[in-house]
Design brief:
By secondary structure, this protein is an alpha+beta fold. Helix content is 58%, strand content 17%. The protein contains four helices and twelve strands. A hairpin with a 2-residue loop joins strand 7 and strand 8 (330-340). The protein starts with a helix and ends in a 6-residue tail after the last strand.
Length: 385
């Protein structure tokens, strides 16, 4: 029986050290946490790149939207010019028809006047005036010479009026054609502007496509980093589960295996109380796996329960970092300290000062990040406080 107990003690010691053969490069929880820390750093770097590219992509999308608005405005202006062109062409068609009719009337009037003048001077006969002046008492108004002069004056006035009308129509036609040319020039310029903006849009859409491809690539890396971290968490959970089983087996054999946590509330980790600023759960697109308690730098940080320190080191994300194993698969962790007062293997008592608060690592201000692991898996700490 004593031999069996010695064997169990050796096995338990092996488990408590953390050498589970899970990873050739990871012989303890500390090693695994170090690997995870490296992955977290890479993930954060990749995420920073993705965030920057997302921001730049948003700027490009905003620029594309602005360019789209410009194209829409240019299309409206071009459509308006097309309407003006149609109206001008219709008006030009009307004036050309009017001009043709005016020229025809002018020519008819001119030919008629020439015939009457020729007839008058060749025949010295005014009898044709009776057709023009049909009043019964016209002979009492003027003599025959006056009839001829009036006819000539009438013909001249009619011809001049027709010439004026034709000229007015011609001027209007010229103006309309001039306006049409101006509209066409403006339309051509606007069309060139629109096409140039469209080319810019196509170039920016290519940029968006390239950004999307790059972002997809980095997101794939981030997903892989997260998968690797999840794998490490699973390994840590397996080590702690094996630790719990070894403790249980040793207890069955009557070995002295300390189980510090058997239920109830943990000691509040911040000696001065502090204020909860962030709880366990979704935050900033990820899962915040602990409880943030704001407090001044240098505030004493207390062990939540008696146990053995299984991790104590500096992490670029967690800062000065401590993990205490309380037995039975339960552990607590303390991040962002300004100073650690315990090392791996140290036994600590409930309420013992193990560190001083700070803002080391990835932190937005002085606080204590308090976490709870059950068989290696992080859970919401609040039910345990």
């Amino acid at each position: 029986m004593r031999k069996m107990r010695r064997i169990l003690k050796v096995a338990l010691a092996f488990v408590l050290v953390g050498s589970m053969g899970i990873n050739a490069h990871a012989t303890s929880i500390t090693d695994l946490e170090g690997q995870k820390e490296d992955l977290e750093g890479k993930k954060q770097e990749a995420q920073a790149i993705v965030d920057k590219m997302d921001s730049e992509k948003d700027n490009i999308l905003a620029a594309i939207q602005e360019l789209d608005n410009q194209v829409a405005e240019l299309n409206i202006q071009i459509n308006d010019l097309e309407t003006q062109k149609t109206e001008l062409n219709d008006a030009i068609a009307i004036t050309e028809k009017q001009l043709s009719e005016a020229e025809k009337k002018e020519q008819e009037q001119y030919e008629a006047m020439k015939l009457r003048i020729q007839y008058t001077y060749e025949n010295d006969d005014y009898s044709y005036l009776d057709v023009v002046f049909t009043s019964s008492d016209i002979s009492s108004m003027v003599n025959q010479e006056e009839y001829g002069a009036q006819v000539y004056d009438y013909d001249s006035k009619m011809l001049n009026d027709l010439i004026d009308i034709k000229q007015e129509i011609s001027d209007t036609n010229d103006l309309l054609n001039s306006q049409l040319e101006e509209v066409q020039v403006i339309e051509e310029q606007l069309t060139e502007d629109r096409d140039a903006v469209q080319i810019m849009i196509e170039g920016k859409e290519t940029q968006i496509s390239n950004y999307n491809a790059s972002i997809d690539g980095y997101n794939a890396q981030i997903a892989q980093y997260q998968a690797d971290m999840d794998s490490i968490d699973a390994q840590i959970a397996a080590i702690m589960e094996e630790r719990r089983k070894a403790e249980a087996a040793a207890a069955v054999q009557g070995l002295d295996v300390p189980i510090y946590y058997t239920g109830g509330n943990f000691q509040w980790p911040v000696s001065s109380g502090g204020i909860i600023t962030s709880t366990f759960g979704a935050r900033w697109g990820t899962i915040h796996q602990g409880l943030d308690i704001a407090c001044p730098i240098g505030t004493p940080i207390l062990a939540g329960e008696s146990g053995t320190v299984i991790a104590s080191y500096y992490s670029s994300s967690a800062g000065e970092y401590i993990v205490i194993d309380h037995g039975n698969g339960v552990a607590t962790e303390y991040m962002h300290n300004s100073q650690r007062l315990v090392n791996v293997g140290d036994h600590v008592s409930r309420g013992q000062v193990i560190a001083y608060s700070g803002s080391t690592g990835y932190s937005t201000g002085p606080h204590c990040h308090f976490g709870v692991r059950i068989n290696g898996t992080r859970v919401d700490p609040q039910p345990y406080l």
